[in-house]
Amino acid sequence: MGPDCVHWELVEQLRGHAWRSDARLRIDPRVLVLAESSFTPMGHEIVHILEANRIKYKLELAGKSLPVLTHLDKGRYAVIVFERLESYLNMDKWNRELIDKYCREYKVGILTFTHPEDALIKAQVRGFPLYVHTKLSLRDYHVNAQSAILRLTRAGNVVHGPLPDKDWTVFVLNHTTYEPLSYAKLHLTGSPVDPSVQDAGDINYVTAVLDKGLFDDIQRVIFGNGFKFWLHRLLFLDALSYLSHGKLSITLERYLLIDIDDIFVGKNGTRMVPSDVQALIDAQARIRRTVKDFHFNLGYSGYYYKAGVGAEDDGDEAIIANARHFWWFPHMWRHLQPHKFDNLTLLELDMLRNKQFAQNHGLVLNQSYAVAPHHSGVFPVHEQLYTAWKRVFDVQVTSTEEYPHLRSPHRRRGFVHRNIRVLPRQTCGLFTHTIFLERYPGGRGKLDYSIRGGELFQTFLYNPINIFMTHLSNYGNDRLALYTFESVIKFVQCWTNLEIKTVPPVELANVYFDMFPEEVSPIWRNPCDDKRHLSIWSVAKTCSRLPKFLVIGPQKTGTTALYSFLGLHPSIRSNANSPTTYEEVQFFNGKNYFRGLDWYMDFFPPVDNSSDTVLFEKSANYFDSDVAPERAHALLPHVKLLCILINPAKRAYSWYQHMIAHQDAVAMSNTFYQVITADENASKAVRDLKHRCLNPGMYASLLERWLDYYPPKQIMIIDGEKLRSDPVSVMDRVQAFLGLEIYFDYSKKLKFSKKKGFYCQVLDNNKTKCLGASKGHQYVPMEPKEEEYLRKLYRKDNIALSKLLPRLGRSIPSWLQEELADLR
């Protein structure tokens, strides 16, 4: 089932669209997906396509109440996708009127699909001048070249042969509002015999239709089948672009880099011979006819040069003799995995040998690009690799399949670490062992399907930048890589208006991070949760060297007291002190995060897996951080969180007094009232102090942010006043929450100090050791106007907190009860 592709070597002039619309501006263009359930294959396919193309969406169940569609007179969604046409037709009157009104007012289109179980056989679509026939077998599919929808999809070719499934729907158009998007012919074998649709000749039936909105002022696109037919993926993306007036359009540029790893590496009998090298040069020349300046990118391991047998050594010499035709990048000298080097000197020596090989054999390494064997050391990060790469090769760009995980491929992303840009790498279905067509897993049919609309084609379709991993052996033997890439490039150019380009890796990285600047910051994930990551993680590292719980704050609520109490327990150990932030690491909330996972883990002692020891860290400014919840969850998804709450007005005043005690110039020159009431005309320094005083006290909204990532059972909320007045009972509950095997009797180690006004540690000689003079200090009371201002400021959030805590199964602390009593 392939296309008639005429003059595929000629790149068609891309079809341009001058998108114009009177649609109101949307908050953030996204798609509302109304699915039948959370488990339907069709719903998953829709979400997969949206995620792969980085199109934002919200998934809801079609039978439930509609989500809020507008905000501040702006539409939230640019397109509404119904998994099933009948779900749209069968909506209750209220929701149907609501969604139709929204679509008319905000010029929002509807995209939907028929389903073989829809009650529409040989029927009129309820409420519309559109007729359908369903459960048909079809063949010979082609798109309407005149359709205004087409942007990504290139018309003019035919998918010959029977189409997948025997449950197609075709449309009979009885109104000028309808325009055909695609056609197919009846495939009589296996189709129900219906005189009204029986094909006596070569009649084209409409298989997808555009409703231009002339009937009821709502534009729609309806498909007569789902995504089992590959071409519907292209048309789906075109329909999203058209219905959103261009706001949900993907770029038509595609960048291609084909890496050939393991040059000179390979078992005897699988390597390239001279004729394979010439075939590689010839294929590169053919691809250049449509992909300007295309080069294969060869990664070499010099140790294995001429380690083959007979003609294979001649093949190595032919590669060197023709080195000028290709781009080159370094693998490792002996093709060893970098994470197995714990000695930086030895790792650099291995790279230097490879560098010397390139110099001795005339290989020009001007790409500032390298790839690690088996992607070792790139992610999870092995810091020695990044250091050695910089020192030896001045590497600026690398690539990997492993970030954030190998699966799913469409979710692979890039990141930057130590000024080395890491790009996502893709596979093409070929690996070191797939070198003969007759032994290809699934046979030739599976490889051809991947090329002709399947996984490999979709990789081109969805990724604006494609770096493909291949191996030396794929270009010898049956030369499957040459067949695969020439075929898929031809297929892409037959069926799409994509423009394929090739640029060197450094320029490619510039393009990638210009497209996706939000990916510059990495997200460190736990290697211990992924078998593949664990296999390429240094044996010198251990999963036990990560904390089991975090004290997240907020500041000035009693976190230092809690930290000192936890330190008394024989099973609990904290991180080593930081030279700049004392007992706090402050990893997840600031610049320390970019120092990497090794830097963080070095703060914690190694722990024997059989030990009862539990590691933790306390960084009180995690609580109100914008980024800490996501970062913490990525690395420590199972960690438990301890959070202390006191009256937010008291916390704000305590922070101000804390800054006074540290002789902060801004606090010293402004009263508390001046700080908390500062407006946008105040200096940045004053506004920053106001932020640190007030924002951490918005407890409800900040807790919700953590609850987006962690379930309630992993969060313990401590009443700070209770911790101060009765720490023994609080610490008993903390021990139970943490599930500690050894119970510690805090009543024997904590004693109230009348002088200090709070509990202190009891030493072995029955003396007490208290926190420093800055802790537990009694300040001059707030002025009435300051108290009143803060009470009003926090009122809404306190009410929200009083509703949130019971929902989480938590009691309402005494200070909050008092605040709520004042509101009655």
TrEMBL record:
Compartment annotation: Golgi apparatus membrane
**Isomerase found in the keyword field:** no
Keyword annotations for this protein, in alphabetical order, are: Disulfide bond, Glycoprotein, Golgi apparatus, Hydrolase, Membrane, Multifunctional enzyme, Signal-anchor, Transferase, Transmembrane, Transmembrane helix
User: Per its UniProt record, what Gene3D superfamilies does this chain match?
Assistant: P-loop containing nucleotide triphosphate hydrolases
Q: Which cysteines are joined by disulfide bonds?
A: C760-C770
Question: Which SUPFAM superfamilies does the record cross-reference, listed alphabetically?
Answer: P-loop containing nucleoside triphosphate hydrolases (SSF52540)
Q: How does it sit in the membrane?
A: Single-pass type II membrane protein
Q: Which GO terms describe its cellular component?
A: Golgi membrane
**A Gene Ontology molecular function term of the record:** heparan sulfate N-sulfotransferase activity
Against InterPro entries, the record matches this protein to: Heparan_SO4_deacetylase_dom, HSNSD_N, NST/OST, P-loop_NTPase, Sulfotransferase_dom
Q: Which residues cross the membrane?
A: none
The family database entries (Pfam families) matched by this protein are listed as: HSNSD-CE, HSNSD_N, Sulfotransfer_1
Residues annotated as binding 3'-phosphoadenylyl sulfate are: S654, Y759, K775, G776, H777, Q778, Y779
Active-site annotation: K556 (for sulfotransferase activity)
**Example of a GO biological process term:** heparin proteoglycan biosynthetic process
Specify where it is mainly localized: Golgi
What's the protein here called?
Answer: [heparan sulfate]-glucosamine N-sulfotransferase
Which species? Capitella teleta
